[in-house]
Each structure stands twice: as structure tokens, then as C-alpha cells.
Amino acid sequence: MGPFDRYYVNRALFGVYFESDIYDRACGAAPAAMRVFQWRMDPAFKARKLIFVHVPRAAGMSVAQALGARLQSHYSMRYYRAVAPRFAAEADSFAILRDPFERFASAYAVVRAGGAEKVRLASPFLRQTGHIRSIDDYLTWLEAREPLQRDHVMRPQSWYITDLASGEVLVKRLFLLGAETEALADYLRGHGVGPLGWINRSERLPLHLTSQQCLRVVKLYRQDFELIGALRAARAREAAARRVDQAAALKIAAE
């Protein structure tokens, strides 16, 4: 790490480590002015009329690669709505969410390893988390920091897809990793996107959380649990409605 490490320069000048966070803060402070950055919209999104909000540790790099988009583009939907409001309103948008316990385990593995297959932790977080040797160490470190003071893999999934003030989901479609593989594949095929690969894997560590640790994870990522709970409930209602429709159709056919 040199004296002009870009993350520390960002932190000194803007109070955040990542360039994407500089823009995200500006979206809240001066949303109208952000329209001058329309040119920063990923060309792959423009070509497909599709915005993918990349939630880290939820197959995001695999999807970005399939789309032909930038692999490490961790911008929130707030950012896309601010820089290109008309495009964001007209285009499809989606994100993939992951069971919060599974994602916590994946992020913990990344922290302990200092990165994943394709991407290392940003230098400030390599340095700040070098002492972590246990789940409790990691939880304590997280609990002492707001989302903008954590690496992207550590932030709540809700941070990327919601209005931070109201909690409103801003993307048009959500998928649950591992539970909606076929639905996601169908959706992507509809946008001319082929099968997904699997990149940026991390070596998983055996992770057995105590009841107290589970409670701490739930507190840290409460909105994620609520979002995914609501998503699962909605899918259950949709499945029940389909069964009712199928039963009605069979009854009519039999008459």
C-alpha cells in the first residue's frame, strides 16, 4: 500500500473508500446534478435495456459476465435512477438476493482468505480485518461500522436495491439465489442472455453459528431477512394461485 492508495485518497477527500460510494452520496445530496453522468451507464445495460444491480456474494460476477457488463460494478439502484432517470424508468431492472446466513458465511470466508478467486479485498479492509480469527471477531468488527465503512461483501443486500429512507424496493424484479434458478434463466433468456458460468468462487469454511451469533447476524442484516421473507411469501402465494388456476382448468376440461 503506497502513500497514494486510491482508497485512502477517497477516504481523505470524500469520507468513503470506494469511488462508487462517492457517486452514491452525491445521488442523495444533488440528484438532479447527477444526470451529467449519464455517460457512465454500462453500455451492456443500454444495449439490452436492462439494469442489473450487482449485490456482492450473490452470483453477481457470473451474471455480469453473461450480460457482457463490468464485473465489479457495485452501484445501487439509487445511483442508476439518479444518473439516468428516464432509462431507469423504462428499462427492466433486477437483482439477485441470497439467504443472509449463506451470504454471511461466504463473506466471512472472503475476509479470512483476504479475497475470492478473482477479487481481493480492498486494501483498507485487508488491513482492518487482518486480526480476525473467529466469527465473533468478525461480528464485533461489523457491529462497530456503518455500511459505507465496510467492504461491499459485508454490506446489507438491501443497501443496493432500496431507498434508504423509506425501505422501498427500487428494482423491478428480484430473484432468490439457489431457489429460482429456472426463473432467473428464463428471465435472462428473454433478454438474450445465455447460460450462467460460475466465477469468483471463495473457499468456504465450515461455519456453525451459535444461537447468540445467529441473533447478531439477524440484527446486522434485519432488512435483508425481511426482504427475503417477503419474497418467499410472495412466491408461495403465486404458486398457490397457479395451483388453483390449474385445478379450475382441469375441472372445466372434465365437464
What is the count of β-strands? 3
Strand order of the largest sheet: 1-2-3
What is the count of structural domains? Answer: 1
Q: Report the β-strand fraction as a percent range.
A: 5-15%
Helix fraction bin: 40-55%
Instruction: Note the main sheet.
Output: 3 strands, parallel
Radius of gyration: 20 Å
The number of helical elements comes to 13
- Unreliable stretches covering 5 or more consecutive residues: none
User: What is the average per-residue confidence, as pLDDT, rounded to a whole number?
Assistant: 90
Look at the helices and sheets and give the structural class: mainly alpha
Shape: globular
Distance between the termini: 76 Å
How do the SSEs run, as a string of H and E? HHHEHHHEHHHHEHHH
